[in-house]
Write a structure and sequence with these properties.
Blueprint (H helix, E strand, L loop, with lengths): L3 E3 L6 E5 L4 H13 E8 L5 H12 L4 E3 L4 E7 L11 E2 L4 H11 L5 E5 L2 H5 L3 H10 L2 E4 H4 L1 E7 L7 E3 L5 H11 L5 E5 L7 H8 L4 E3 L3 E5 L4 E2 L3 E2 L4 H13 L4 E8 L6 H8 L3 E10 L2 E9 L7 E2 L3 H5 L3 H9 L3 E5 L12 H10 L4 E5 L2 E6 L3 E7 L4 H11 L2 E8 L11 H7 L1
Parallel strand pairs: 2-16, 3-14, 3-15, 6-7, 10-11, 19-20, 23-24
Antiparallel strand pairs: 1-24, 3-5, 4-5, 7-9, 8-9, 11-13, 12-13, 16-18, 17-18, 20-22, 21-22
The chain binds shikimate-3-phosphate (S3P).
The site of shikimate-3-phosphate (S3P) has 11 residues, from α7.
């Protein structure tokens, strides 16, 4: 198990880029696999999660060539190009791979077994299995189809209207992908808008997607046309560097070509509300996704209260936002974030536990955290618990902890941010 050592620092500076967006990289492979023609992807994230997606689609007979770590080519042959896999599909640690892929498999007339690692085995799959069954797919698994390993036999789908109880892009995307293969219309409504990369990328692949205030729908029987995809830098990875620069005295950094999709950039709004100096330079759109450069300067932060519709816009950034809150004057309150409990780890519990090891004042609540700051953190040993974002949040805290921080099980970081340690030292 790899160990990451972070010393207390001052004066981070540099002009860097972060690896490609994880959500968009997954979708580029999957949509390329079901499209007609060749999809070339530049800026692909070669993290463990996205490599799991490539592996699964290769096992279903889709030719995927890698011309270097961030450049791939997917040879799609339409929906019919996918074949019944001879082996079990292993999604590793990736919730996006399993939930979106189940939407594709739900319409394929063959049998597949899908599994993943210990973390995936604890994450709820009934949120997609139940509506897929309503559409006509046969999905079975542990605890009445709630947990992996899952088996699925697809085909014969009928469109449904599904008011999702959770704001989840994985649920929404799964059902839209099944809906494209169903008879009639499939509509998904969600309590607040989750990330909309699927809607944007399907449109770019020539699919008619109807969006309104309450939901999104697609008509069945549509095919995707291959196209080139340039993947922006992942704002969720940039968030670790943003917080690092904001809390480390005398720092100023620029992060180039970051994806600034309005359903994803809540972290920029909240860090600014906390008093963070973040300058955004827009750079246009890549494949329907807004992109820009971020210049971030050390700032005195103050506590903030967040909840409601903001949460889906920064759900993956909450562990590192909690680190920022330990350095902010006053109280930070995070509400309506119970979804954190079913991520790669229970991120409410684990974030609080790891930050407390460094002397932070963090209280767990049913649906979030209350953090008091500012606190001079003290060095200690932390553990990622196999969760990439917990590992990186602990590392960022190490930059302002007296004596530095050692992160155990740091190899988990490769799931979304290969090269994190090198980039942090480069700053
Ligand atoms: C993702 C959606 C989010 C997010 C995950 C990636 C996606 O999960 O937490 O890291 O790519 O669709 P939910 O949609 O389940 O909240």
């Amino acid at each position: 198990m790899a160990i990451l050592r972070i010393e207390e620092r001052r004066g981070l500076s540099g002009d860097v880029s972060v690896p490609g967006d994880k959500s968009i990289s997954h979708r580029a492979v999957m949509f390329g696999a079901i499209a007609q023609g060749t999809t070339r992807v530049e800026g692909f994230l070669p993290g463990a999660d996205c490599l799991s997606t490539i592996d699964c689609f290769r096992k279903m007979g889709v030719p995927i060539r890698q011309h270097g770590p961030t450049s791939i080519e997917v040879e799609g042959n339409g929906w019919e190009g996918m074949k019944e896999p001879e082996a079990v599909l292993d999604v590793g640690n990736s919730g996006t791979t399993i939930r979106l892929m189940l939407g594709i498999l739900a319409g394929r007339p063959f049998h597949t077994i899908v599994t993943g690692d210990d973390s995936i085995a604890r994450r709820p799959m009934d949120r997609v299995a139940k509506p897929l069954r309503r559409m006509g797919a046969r999905v079975e698994g542990r605890a009445e189809g709630s947990y992996t390993p899952l088996s699925i036999r697809g085909g014969g789908l009928k469109g449904i209207t599904y008011p999702s109880p959770v704001a989840s892009a994985q649920v929404k995307s799964c059902l839209l992908l099944a809906g494209l293969q169903a008879e009639g219309r499939t509509r998904v409504e969600e309590p607040s808008l989750s990330r909309d990369h699927t809607e944007r990328m399907l449109t770019a692949f020539g699919v008619r997607v109807n969006r309104d205030l309450d939901g999104v729908s697609v008509e069945g029987g549509q095919t995707l046309q291959a196209r080139d995809v340039r993947v922006p830098g992942d704002i969720s990875s940039a968030a670790f560097l943003m917080v690092a620069a904001l809390i480390t005295p005398e720092s100023q950094i620029t992060i180039r070509n970051v994806g600034l999709n309005p359903t994803r950039d809540g972290i920029v709004d909240v860090l600014r509300e906390m008093g963070g100096d973040i300058q955004v330079t827009p750079k246009g759109e890549w494949c329907g996704e807004p992109v820009g450069d971020l210049t971030v300067t050390y700032s005195r932060l103050k506590g903030v209260e967040i909840g409601g519709k903001m949460i889906p816009r920064l759900i993956d950034e909450i562990p590192v936002l909690a680190v920022a809150a330990t350095q902010a004057e006053g109280q930070t309150v995070i509400r309506d974030a119970a979804e954190l409990k079913v991520k790669e780890t229970d991120r409410i519990h684990i974030t609080a536990q790891e930050l407390r090891k460094l002397g932070a004042r963090v209280e767990e609540t049913d649906d979030g955290m209350v953090i008091e700051g500012p606190v001079q953190l003290t060095g200690n040993r932390c553990n990622s618990h196999g969760d990439h974002r917990i590992g990186m949040a602990a590392a960022v805290a190490g930059l302002v902890a007296e004596g530095g921080v050692t992160v155990d099980q740091a190899d988990a970081i490769d799931v979304s941010f290969p090269g994190f340690e090198a980039l942090l030292s480069e700053l």
